Amino acid sequence: MKYAWVRDGKTISEATKKMYTKEEVEKTNAGKYKCTTTYGALAAQESDEVEVKISDPGIPCTTNAECNAADKSLTGACEEGRCVCANDYYARGDKCENGVAQAAASLLLILFAAVISRLDFV
């Protein structure tokens, strides 16, 4: 079985497996994704399209009052629409976490092959 992933109508040349993953995601990776599969002489099958949106990490806010946390993970400041994480905390998803991980904006984008499970090869 062969797999071809497509974003916004353009084939992703390096995406040829059942699951497409990408580390170090940027906002330019947002778009509409789908997968096409072929198996021998059978007609190609196409998955449903999935829209992927990329947002900045951290808790969205409009005022400083929204950025207070009982666990001290936030500074109480809202800057550029996101709550500021306290020292030793970093934004991950929609929260501030502490630990040894770097504060880099690193996400793992996984488009599960679950969309392919709808394809019916007989």
Description:
By secondary structure, the protein is mainly beta. The protein is 0% helix and 39% strand. It is built from no helices and eleven strands. The strands form four sheets. Strands 1, 2, 4, 5 and 6 form a five-stranded antiparallel sheet that branches. Strands 3-11 form a two-stranded antiparallel ribbon. A two-stranded antiparallel sheet has the order 7-8. The model is unreliable at 100-118 (pLDDT under 50). This is Ig-like domain-containing protein.
Q: How many beta-strand elements?
A: 11
Radius of gyration: 19 Å
State the oligomer.
single chain
How is the CATH topology of the largest domain named?
Immunoglobulin-like
Characteristics:
elongated; 5-stranded antiparallel β-sheet; 2 domains; 122 residues; mainly beta
Helix and strand arrangement:
Elements (H helix, E strand, L loop, with lengths): L1 E6 L2 E2 L8 E4 L7 E8 L6 E2 L3 E3 L21 E6 L2 E4 L3 E4 L2 E4 L9 E4 L11
Antiparallel strand pairs: 1-2, 1-4, 3-11, 4-5, 4-6, 7-8, 9-10
Summarize the structure.
This protein has strands at residues 2-7, 10-11, 20-23, 31-38, 45-46, 50-52, 74-79, 82-85, 89-92, 95-98, 108-111.
